């Protein structure tokens, strides 16, 4: 019943980063639900304009006061250590330690989330309240981490369809103990993959679980040809908070996926925003060289909620109900994508006589029958090869499903062809 | 003075259908005002996806009670018989008869209009009040009709213009005693044809009086080449009720006829609606194979008034004033079509000196003179071969006639050419 | 401090017309600030559809009453004589004189401005109050003018740029003692030319001071090839009244100059109006044969203020502050034009790693740094050769300068090329 929320809770304690064992363990757990093909990209590999960094692993970290009490303890929350901190083992006064301490002065009870992937440094994140209680020291400071040649890891799950054309669902999996950003996205994607596998599909669906930025860049670098097969895609993030859905359009702005999301969201509270080159991995998919039709589906977007990138983004912040709603949006969008074809009317001169084919109820009356008949007339009228069923649904104001059912009936009757 | 209304009253009692003698007699009466070329298409002829049905004729029909009184009588109103009813002669109880009786429960005093062209059946239409007064029977039930091989009839009136390009005015003539739908349209079209004939025209005008759907389909099937000459067209229907004008755009949506109607209607109450593949014969003209620039001009559109397809749509429901207003709209639209040319400025570098050609009043002052001069400057500035006079009128905000007069003055002065 | 206003006051008393010594003297005075190349076009020269008229010069003019008092005196204001009046020397009663007298009955204290360039006549302009005080006469009436073969004069100032492509600034200089129309425009243009010369420019800037209509037509006739080099242009007029700026778009409507002006004006009170073929010399530049991207920049447009074309349009009507604001608008618009380039991202697959190039501050924080980084991401994302920096500024909502600075930084880093 709360399958997605259970996955969020299980993944939450792991210390993920853009490389390392926490990331690998996360992919293993996802792999229990949906088989993942794992890729390991060695440190130093050139990927597009970037280079795979060293692999980072951490076992323990703390700041101990003179009584031996851990004032700040990695074991309590992995947010306490700045991601990619180099090893430290020293005794320091507060004054010496202070430049390495990060707090949120405006929200004294919360621990911030910080990383420093590409500049070698170290640091601790703690609450302003903890900092306020700290005397002049000295303190025992220790970060038991390693930064060494290794690999960057990502995982893929593919559901083959009748067509080699792909729909991409991409989730970043590099954030440590943060629930909405992005364990909720991971949980929704995992559930979505299982739902989609239940029936035969037109499109091939590719789920990519990769560290943000460098992960999607690595995938793109190693799959340049495959990228060209992506016909539609979404980046799934912040999928579990209580806010309404936000869909950020692809760079193209009017890609089919953009129109489909607008269509399935139109009768519910939602926000549509134009593309901007900031956010999640749509930045990479929508770089001008690739310009893929990939948008970003979230509930409240990044930095749009006060819990963002703090210890308050914990499993209680996300709900199964919200994740189900995000899942439902994806399912409905993909249903439209699957059925959105463009037909050609084979009897385009005048209306074909529907009555003698049993497609026109002379008595009519029931409103769903009338809607179905209107949908047939619309499909016949617009099917000149230039209008998709989504176009027809939008122009006619009829629900997409009714239009698609009408097209199916006309296809069976031999009045239209694909 | 009320010439159109008189025609409505004269045609009203005839029992029209999509074939038969009532239809023929209607065309004869129209032909007294404007000569019609009559076409007879034999039963069984394949026309596009359809087949011409048997011809239906009816002489009498009634339901008599045991006292011999005609409870329901075709002679009182031809709406009482379901169109295309097969012959019946039987004695039946009310219970047996009931499935063949059609009423309007919500409007107990009115008789509905029903047909069954393509499913062989029979029936009577009556008021709910009449039905309520009927005892268990038995009743003598008789429909003296014939459904036999014959012809479908339609009539055309053509006003030749300087150009072989055509403007089509199409009216359905298949409804029996219903005044607004479509005797008012027939009356307006007939008067319009006489008005247009008074002076030489650029376009050739074709008036088509044909039964709905199957009639326009038959015409299109037999005039595929001619259809290609139709540059503009309107389907004229519901032309006499007291509501404001509604213009439904052609499938193209931005055809010249669509822009012209929007232009002539803009300063008066009206409604513009987008094309939909339901309504009158624009459905056929705008099928994707033909995709003709034909819109539909009505006052209140079909099904938009409570009298629609009932005995309340009688001659008192339509007014001469409303028909004159519909006529005026057509006349003004066709005036714009006639004058809407695209010119080329022969002196396009800088403004030509209008003063030395007597085209620029140095003193100015009168506002119509100023408007005329502004119109000349606009025509000169925009006449690069890509902007019609209607474009110029819309861009400048000047009345079309003023712009067209300015173009004429510039043409005479040799400053523009067509 | 009030350099522009001083120029207005100095030029104000001169009796300018479309030809003659007042026009020449005006160009001489402008030439003291910015060197002008003077062109003299002989009477009778065919220029496009027009012919250069005779040159008009005037020395004196008056209406004297019987006591010898000058009731109306050219020496007091050159507006008193209808421009291009032929010589007169006569004694006339008021009744005889009356058809030659022009007043503004609605504004009894003001003297109107009138001309009659192309119809040979003569006349005086005076206030309604003066007229009311005039007895039956007789009056000594004298206009000491000459209308003879001569020349039409215009002046040009060119600031060469790296490119032969030109930006045109055009001012009419044919109005006598009228300050806003157009001495303020002349003063702003003169100051603008000096400002632009201070640094190297991409574009070549051409300033044209010419009589209205016939002057720009003469220039166009003699510079057909050069006209083709004009990439952007503005007609500068009514540049000194206290109203907000109005920009009238070029005929094209979406020329770069049109978008640039809309951009620099967007955060301040202003009005944008579409092109119309009436106003100032944009009428000639935007005639369909040339169709140059030239708009018209004014404060309150012609005929939009009650002082227009009357003696109330005097130096007190215009302010240095308003002229400085007009100047600032021009400067900012030309800055955008100068910097508005289209770049190509040389690393278009994924985002380039800005951090290792020192272009990405890992700590961030300062809002101008964040804006600069967003601008770099936008420039990289949109620089596919189809989007200019102005496009990017408008799509991103970032200030143009920030976007242009970001592009410059990326250019230096070798990440984009022009």
From TrEMBL, chains A, B, C:
Residues 55-146 form the DUF2172 domain. Residues 5-340 form the DUF4910 domain. Its cofactor is Zn(2+). Binds 1 zinc ion per subunit. Pfam families: DUF2172, DUF4910, HTH_47. Transmembrane segments: none annotated. SUPFAM superfamilies: Zn-dependent exopeptidases. Residues 341-417 form the UCP01524 winged helix-turn-helix domain. It comes from the Bacteria. It comes from Microbispora rosea. InterPro entries: DUF2172, DUF4910, UCP015244, UCP01524_HTH, WH-like_DNA-bd_sf. One of its GO terms (molecular function) is aminopeptidase activity. Keywords: Aminopeptidase, Hydrolase, Metal-binding, Protease, Zinc. This is Aminopeptidase-like domain-containing protein. The keyword Zinc applies. Zn(2+) binds at residues 175, 181, 309.
């Amino acid at each position: 019943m709360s399958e997605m929320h259970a996955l969020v809770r299980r993944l939450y304690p792991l210390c993920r980063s853009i490389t390392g064992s926490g990331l690998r363990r996360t992919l293993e757990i996802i792999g229990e639900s949906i088989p993942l093909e794992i890729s390991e990209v060695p440190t130093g590999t050139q990927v597009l304009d970037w280079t795979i960094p060293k692999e980072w692993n951490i076992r323990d970290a703390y700041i101990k006061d003179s009584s031996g009490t851990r004032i700040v303890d990695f074991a309590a929350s992995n947010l306490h250590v700045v991601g990619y901190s180099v090893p430290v083992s020293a005794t320091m006064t507060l004054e010496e330690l202070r430049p390495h301490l990060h707090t949120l002065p405006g929200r004294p009870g919360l621990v911030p989330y910080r990383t420093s992937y590409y500049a070698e440094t170290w640091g601790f994140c703690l609450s302003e309240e903890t900092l306020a209680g700290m005397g002049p020291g000295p303190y025992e400071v220790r970060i038991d981490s390693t930064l060494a040649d290794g690999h960057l890891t990502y995982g893929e799950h593919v559901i083959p369809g009748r067509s080699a054309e792909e729909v991409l669902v991409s989730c970043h999996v590099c954030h440590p103990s943060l629930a909405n950003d992005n364990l909720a996205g991971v949980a929704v994607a995992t559930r979505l993959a299982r739902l989609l596998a239940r029936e035969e599909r037109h499109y091939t669906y590719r789920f990519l679980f990769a560290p943000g930025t460098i992960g999607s860049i690595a995938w793109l670098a190693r799959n340049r040809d495959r990228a060209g097969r992506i016909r539609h895609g979404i980046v799934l993030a912040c999928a579990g908070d209580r806010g309404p859905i936000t869909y950020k359009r692809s760079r193209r702005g009017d890609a089919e996926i953009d129109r489909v999301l607008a269509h399935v969201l139109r009768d519910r509270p939602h926000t549509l925003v134009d593309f901007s080159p900031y956010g999640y991995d749509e930045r990479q998919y929508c770089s001008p060289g690739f310009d893929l039709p990939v948008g970003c589906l979230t509930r409240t977007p990044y930095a749009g909620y006060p819990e963002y990138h703090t210890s308050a983004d914990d499993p209680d912040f996300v709900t199964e109900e919200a994740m189900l709603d995000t899942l439902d949006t994806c399912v409905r969008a993909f249903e439209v994508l699957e059925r959105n074809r463009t037909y050609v009317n084979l009897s385009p001169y005048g209306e074909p006589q529907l009555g003698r084919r049993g497609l026109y109820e002379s008595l009519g009356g029931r409103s769903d029958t009338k809607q179905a008949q209107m949908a047939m007339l619309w499909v016949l009228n617009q099917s000149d090869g230039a209008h998709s069923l989504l176009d027809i649904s939008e122009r006619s104001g009829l629900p997409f499903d009714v239009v698609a059912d009408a097209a199916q009936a006309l296809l069976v009757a031999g009045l239209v062809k694909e």
